[in-house]
Specification:
alpha+beta, FAD/NAD(P)-binding domain, nine-stranded mixed β-sheet, eight-stranded mixed β-sheet, 11 helices, globular, binds flavin-adenine dinucleotide
Length: 378
């Protein structure tokens, strides 16, 4: 046997899976078809249900990111709703905003040197009674106890496990970048300006950087050419409010803007014998929930737990699917509710909203109800 497990993909799911399995004393190979870490897309919010499973990264995780205490959403008339994240999560941990590349580098640093074999990918899997034989694009081969597909929303491994599934466009497109923390992007909070089905905002992510994004509700998800990314974002911002237009004008058009459609995915079959899917390969939700990465991290914890309980083989993978699927289905329902609540709460259902002022009680109660099932995992 080459190793106990092959992990396909070195994103959040793959790197966390590798760390968990190594903690169990298993031998793990990780391959990624990219040349290096793929951490496009500026910053990421790690909610307490993700942080609860990342203690192996140590205090360096918290030193590298920024805790976010409040989310302030402003409508075109200046009316603001304030969400108090401590009240929502009800614990000591606040959500942590961090640069994606910083997070991935930290995850990689906590693995033994050369844990990831870059620039290669599997091209064939053949299951035997007690192993999986894998052929790689670079001509190599390997024999593993299990193969774990952590290869993202367009997963190759999924074509082996559940070939019919295709991601679907969720009706919004995202622009993301990071800028130096400096006026006007120097708020301590997570700020969102909302108008006409579009959301513009940002938050500090540590290291003197600030994450900036536009979520645009667009029926047509056509990709934007990199050289047109800023221009199209600015055109949408101009339809939102003078405040948003001014914020976007202060960005540098020459910066790099990551543009991605929001895609959803529901996969019925996560496991085929000794092959299993983890993270976005198995499920994907609207980015507006800021929970896709957290769900991937939770997957890895449950997977490690079941491998420890049952040993490396199909029984552990079946138990992993049985535990994770109901939670992911529940969360998918919550993700839809999140979309409805996010609009409703900030439109006119928040009790005691004040123009340009603050109210925490109303929206925190709504969101606490929404997030309560997530707290159980945290
Ligand atoms: C706009 C946006 C904002 C988001 N914000 C948040 C947030 O704030 N909080 C949060 O928790 N989540 C957020 N998410 C979701 C989160 O980014 C994803 O859920 C998470 O990155 C999934 O990680 P993953 O490792 O499963 O997949 P990926 O990050 O896609 O990693 C997959 C890896 O597999 C590699 N790979 C692909 N195919 C192959 C192959 N055939 N062979 C070998 N390697 C392969 C890729 O190179 C890549 O390194 C957001 C998503 C979007 C789009």
């Amino acid at each position: 046997m080459h190793a106990d497990a092959l992990v396909v993909g070195a994103g959040i799911a793959g790197l966390t899976t590798a760390a968990r399995l190594l903690q169990l004393g298993l031998r793990v190979d990780v391959v990624d078809r990219a040349d290096e870490i793929q951490a496009a897309g500026a910053g990421i919010m790690l909610h307490p249900n993700a942080l609860a499973h990342l203690d192996h990264l140590g205090p360096g995780l918290y030193a590298a990111g920024r805790p976010i205490a409040r989310q302030i959403t402003t409508d075109p008339d200046g009316t603001a709703s304030v969400l108090d994240w401590a009240a929502v999560w009800g614990g000591e941990r606040l959500p942590l905003a961090i640069r994606r590349r910083t997070l991935s580098e930290l995850m990689l640093r906590h693995l033994p040197a050369d844990s990831v074999r870059w620039s290669t990918e599997p091209t064939a899997l053949n299951q035997g009674a007690d192993h999986v034989d894998v052929v790689f694009a670079d001509g190599g081969t390997g024999r593993y106890g299990v193969v774990l597909g952590a290869d993202g929303i367009n997963s190759w491994t999924r074509t082996y496990v559940d070939p019919q599934v295709r991601p679907r466009y969720l009706g919004h497109l995202y622009w993301r970048t990071t800028v130096e923390t400096a006026p006007p992007f120097d708020f301590d909070d997570w700020r969102i300006w909302r108008s006409g089905g579009h959301f513009f905002g940002g938050m500090p992510i540590g290291g003197g950087r600030y994450h900036v994004f536009l979520q645009a509700g667009l029926a047509d998800p056509r990709r934007v050419a990199p050289e047109l990314a800023y221009a199209q974002m600015a055109a949408i911002a101009a339809t939102m409010s003078p405040a948003v237009e001014a914020l976007v004008r202060s960005l540098d058009p020459a910066d790099s803007y990551n543009v991605r459609p929001a895609q959803g995915l529901s996969v019925n079959r996560w496991v085929d014998g000794r092959v299993a899917l983890v993270g976005d390969a198995a499920h994907s939700f609207s980015p507006a929930t800021t929970q896709g990465g957290a769900m991937a991290i939770e997957d890895t914890s449950v997977l490690a737990d079941e491998l420890a309980r049952h040993g490396v083989g199909p029984q552990a993978l079946a138990a992993y699917q049985a535990r994770r699927q109901p939670r992911v289905r529940d969360f998918s329902r919550m993700a839809r509710l999140h979309g409805v609540l996010s609009s409703a709460v900030q439109a006119n259902l928040t009790p005691g909203r004040t123009a340009g002022g603050a109210t925490t009680a109303g929206s925190a109660a709504w969101f606490r109800r929404l997030y309560r099932p997530l707290m159980e995992a945290a």
